[in-house]
Amino acid sequence: MRLAEFLSVHLGAEESCGNPPELGQPGEVPPLLTVTSQLLALLAWIRSPRGRQVLLQGTHPASNVQPPTPDGALSQEDSPYQPTPIQGEVPRGEAQGQQLPQLEEEQRAWQRLEQLILGQLEELRQQLEQQEEELGRLRLGVGATDSEKRVQHLTLENEALKQSLSLTRDLLLNWGPGPPTRAPQEEAEALLELQGRLQEAQDTTEALRVQLGVQEVQLQGLRGALQQLQQETEQNCRRELQQVHGQLAGLRTRMASLRQGCGDLRGLVSTFTQSCQGSLSEAQGQVSWALGALSAGGAGTQLPEGQQGPPTGCPGRLLELKGNIRVLCRLRPGTPCSLVSVEAGPGGTVTTCYRGRQRRFHLDWVFSPDASQEEVFGELEPAVLSCLQGYSVCIFTYGQTGTGKTYSMEGPPEDPGIAPRALQSLFREMGTGGQHRVTLSMVEIYNEAVRDLLAPGPPERLAVRQGPAGQGGIQVAGLTHWDVPNLETLHQMLSLGRSNRATAATSMNPRSSRSHALVTLTLCAASPPSTPGTAGTLHLVDLAGSERAWKAGATGTQRGDPNSAQRLREAQTINRSLLALGGVMAALRARRSHVPFRDSQLTRLLQPALGPGTTAVLLLQISTRPEDLGETVCSLKFAERVGQVELGPARRRKAPRSETPSSLSTDTPLTGTPCTPTRSPVSPPSPSPDSGSCSALGPSGDLPP
Ligand code: ADP
Ligand code: MG
């Protein structure tokens, strides 16, 4: 302390040997480093010759002070508080003689100590600088991942520095130049000042530690924010990705629907083109017919009855057929049920209340339960008669077993149904002019097997094939076609076919038809010499029951019924084929480019009857029994969907001059081997119907005038 004070007194005057830094200078340099730097500067000055000279001249070390050992330890009697001899008590000459070797020795000890202190101080300074750098880095928040440990480390370092400082201070005090030159009060003040600085350094360290803590907290906060930001970004990205996926799926769906729409449009265009061509050729036919009539009879001459042009039938009614499948509904007579109510007549409705839900179905025509066979046929007659003009008409009955499909289609002899009345009406319309040639074929589809009901022998199983490429339609190889000269023969043949039809009993209908029956009548009109004739077709289809297999009691597991397994199979195949019919209707309704006609034999055979430009009428038979309500609703739903199917405007078919009626046009469904069994089927002809070479029809021009 004395040395330090002494030096601080002299430092102000020394410029050349390097001044120690100003004590207590406020600034950014930490106090500890400042103190150390000051000590270093002091030592550097002490080491300089000038410093030594000043020291030697101004004062001298206390005689009782021993130089410290190289390791810095001091002996017990080196205490600075021990009394020292007062300067000037020894005579001067003697004292000088004794002091010289002692001074030299002290000089050497001084140098050793100086080296030691210098080394230690240099080391301390480097450590302090490192700490300062570290603190600076921490202030900047760089590398502060382990800040807590660093703070502890810094505290420890600080403690070590403090110890080193106090050691240095002790050394300086013990090894100071001679007895205290200041008053004890000054010493105490200097000590206090140093302690103050030390405290200041500690405070600074503490403040830095607090600051570090704050920064650590801020860093944690920033890390949290960063993590949150990352999560949010990730979530946003995911959400956007999902949105993009959703948009992509939407686009795909839209593209598919556009493709579908494109296919539908193509279908429409082709239907329209065909319709235009049909109308054009029809107009041409009419013009040439009129010209022929004019040239034959002269202007203003009344034509004979047989040459009155195309049979009129009900042309006005025919125009009502706008290309949609017409749906008529007939209720089976029975006890009225409050759950089914009807508004009969054209555009009628059927309202059902099933499972607490009321539904109203709109149909083209609704017949009340007491409607007669005549009434029903009256609605169908225009369509039937249009066959004479070359149109293709298909009438089919649909509904649950026992609802009266067969009754409506065939009817009992005393009250005939659609088929006999249609034939009668056609023959009546044709009259006796012989302008038309009528051929008949009849098949049934039983368990997906197509059987010829008018074969001369027992019913044969027939193969249904796709027609020649480009012509469409189908071919039924070996199918018997009968030429029907008159109504009586026709009735006889129908009876024969009916008796050949497979029937079996179920719990719902003792004489239920377990098969689909298709009657096809082809009417080829004789043509004037210059124009092609027409070939109309009438398909009469009596479908098997549409009820579910389980409800028909044909579950196949019933005890005591040896045929129950067969009943179950029948019910399953019927359901499958009706499902296929539903699929075809759905595709036609949606105007899909692909219509699944090949899904069942029924739809295969109906393909020509449901082609573009044909006329189709569905007669839906429903029951009013409460226990049948579920089936009734199902049937009505099916019928409503069928009512939306558009087959395009009806158009007439031309009969090629050189071909037989059975292959006159591609829409003739039951094309196959033409045959000529003109004899009555009651006395079956010799079995040669599939010879394919015995056509009784020559070119259409050969038809009687
Ligand atoms: P499906 O062919 O739908 O199975 P059917 O035509 O065989 O049903 O009819 C079942 C029973 O109901 C038959 O005995 C039939 O005579 C009778 N029937 C159906 N509809 C009527 C009706 N409108 N008038 C009189 N009897 C009917
Ligand atoms: Mg039936």
TrEMBL record:
Instruction: Point out the coiled-coil segments of this chain.
Output: 114-164, 191-232
InterPro entries for the chain:
Kinesin-like_fam (IPR027640), Kinesin_motor_CS (IPR019821), Kinesin_motor_dom (IPR001752), Kinesin_motor_dom_sf (IPR036961), P-loop_NTPase (IPR027417)
- Tell me the keywords, alphabetical order: ATP-binding, Coiled coil, Cytoplasm, Cytoskeleton, Microtubule, Motor protein, Nucleotide-binding
Q: What Gene Ontology biological process does one annotation of this record name?
A: microtubule-based movement
Pfam families cross-referenced by the UniProt entry: Kinesin (PF00225)
Q: Which GO terms describe its cellular component?
A: microtubule
Family the entry assigns? Belongs to the TRAFAC class myosin-kinesin ATPase superfamily. Kinesin family.
Q: What does this protein do?
A: May play a role in microtubule-dependent retrograde axonal transport. May function as the motor for the transport of multivesicular body (MVB)-like organelles in dendrites.
Q: What is this protein called?
A: Kinesin-like protein
- Tell me the organism's taxonomic lineage: Eukaryota, Metazoa, Chordata, Craniata, Vertebrata
Which gene name does the record give? KIFC2
